[in-house]
Amino acid sequence: MSHKITTNWKGNMLFDSDNPSGHHVMMDTDVEGQEREGLSPKALMLSSLAGCSGLDVVSVLEKMKVEVDDYKMVVEGQLTDEHPKIYHTVTIDYHFTGKDLNESKIKKAVDLSAEKYCGVMEMFRQFADVKINIIFHNN
């Protein structure tokens, strides 16, 4: 299986990139005097990591019949000081909110994503130290 995307320059530092699903994302970077219209490519990598793992976790929780009221991930990447600047450490905080949360099943779902299913996380592990925290917010 392969994925193919097309990215078009839209002027200044703005690029429009398609996706095999047909959806588009706008990317740019900070330039003094220009308004940002898109996401930065490096931060978008962190969003891809959260999206990949998040989809896994939701899928596993549904199969386990585990319900949560809210679920979010906060991903922070630390960049190297030297060019090319890459993420050397990435921390993913998984936040689950609900009443009577099944903490052991939720932990299993996160572990399955992190250790077996999430290809983006495995790619990150090739160049960064990936750290995972699970935070439970019981109502």
Automatic annotation (TrEMBL):
Alphabetized InterPro entries for the sequence: KH_dom-like_a/b (IPR015946), OsmC/Ohr_fam (IPR003718), OsmC/Ohrsf (IPR036102)
Domain of life: Bacteria
Record-linked PANTHER family: PROTEIN YHFA
Protein name: OsmC family protein
UniProt lineage: Bacteria, Pseudomonadati, Bacteroidota, Flavobacteriia, Flavobacteriales
